[in-house]
Design brief:
The chain is α+β, with helices and mostly antiparallel strands and 267 residues long. It has helices at 17-27, 46-50, 126-141, 143-147, 181-192, 234-239; strands at 2-9, 31-35, 55-59, 67-71, 76-80, 102-107, 110-116, 152-157, 196-197, 211-212, 224-225, 228-232, 240-245, 261-266. It is globular. The termini are close together. It binds one DNA strand of 18 nucleotides through strand 10. This is Exodeoxyribonuclease III.
Length: 267
DNA sequence: ATGCCCCGCCCCGCGGGA
């Protein structure tokens, strides 16, 4: 069987609902991992995606973060949040908050995590340390599935460009997050767990960027970054028959600033 | 043309994104 899995930082599932339904209808993924829902679990458009044949599991609290998994292949063993997931202590908060940034489910023959890794904001900011801790918690959380015989992958917005080739101009990111050694080391640690970066092909130009800032004509000028990633275990990676970034979904008004990444598996 | 930022929030400038 062929299984199509995709990941998309949707930047508000409410504002993007028409675009989401249009994209599902066209690309027809069997499984879709969503990030940045910006809505509470109860406000997720379960009925709208059900009409297109998708079951959904969502994990959101409101205006920030939020993740979901849509599936046509069944949706079982849902886990909300990473085991041992660190919380973030905001400047004006008394207690750290455990944010909705991860959800897992088994969809037919495949198990997936949909993750939205913390941004980090600035190097050495409390949010940057939180980002590094979060990636370490992710690594610990996937050890068993990563070593298993069942195809397994972590898909989502990792907020890290794995190499200098994954940003349009390395010099433009000097001193900024997403490209630092510590972030890349925390990301690369997933490989010691047995996971590999499934690099998609671009549909245009030479690099498979997945994010372009809304400002300054970044998309037409292809000033992008590859930060939406798929980390698969051996059975998953060996089944990959194709992977691409659907930059068409980034065109026009009312789009997310991220493009969906599609991975096809021959199982 | 892909075209100069956009989201949510107890209304509107601000925090956050990267």
């Amino acid at each position: 069987m062929t299984v199509r899995i995709a990941t998309w930082n949707i930047n508000s599932v409410t504002a993007r609902l028409p675009k989401l339904l249009e994209w599902l209808d066209g690309a027809k993924p069997d499984v879709l991992c969503l990030q940045e829902l910006k809505c509470a679990t109860d406000s997720f458009p379960f009925e709208a995606v059900k009409e297109l044949g998708y079951e959904a599991a969502a994990h959101g609290t409101g205006r920030w973060n939020g993740v979901a998994i849509l599936s046509k292949l069944g949706l079982t063993d849902v886990v909300r949040g990473l085991p041992e997931q660190p919380g973030y202590l905001a400047d004006d908060a008394l207690l750290p908050e455990t944010e909705p940034r991860a959800i897992a489910a088994t969809c037919g023959p495949v198990r997936v995590w949909s993750v939205y890794v913390p941004n980090g904001r600035e190097v050495d900011h409390a949010h940057y340390r939180y980002k590094l801790e979060w990636l370490e918690a992710l690594r610990r959380s996937v050890l068993e599935d990563a070593a298993g015989a069942r195809p397994f992958a972590v898909l989502g917005d990792f907020n890290v460009a794995p190499t200098d080739e994954d940003v349009y101009d390395r010099a433009a990111f000097e001193g900024l997050t997403h490209v630092t050694e510590r972030e890349r080391a925390a990301l690369a640690a997933l490989q010691t767990a047995g996971l590999r970066d499934v690099v998609p092909r671009p549909l245009k130009y030479d690099r498979p960027y997945t994010y372009w800032d809304y400002r300054a004509l970044c998309f037409p000028k292809n000033r992008g970054m590859r930060i939406d990633l798929t980390y698969g275990n051996k059975p998953f990676v060996e089944a990959v028959s194709d992977s691409y970034v659907d930059r068409e979904a980034r065109k026009g008004k009312g789009t997310s600033d991220h493009a969906p990444v599609v991975v096809d598996l021959a199982l």
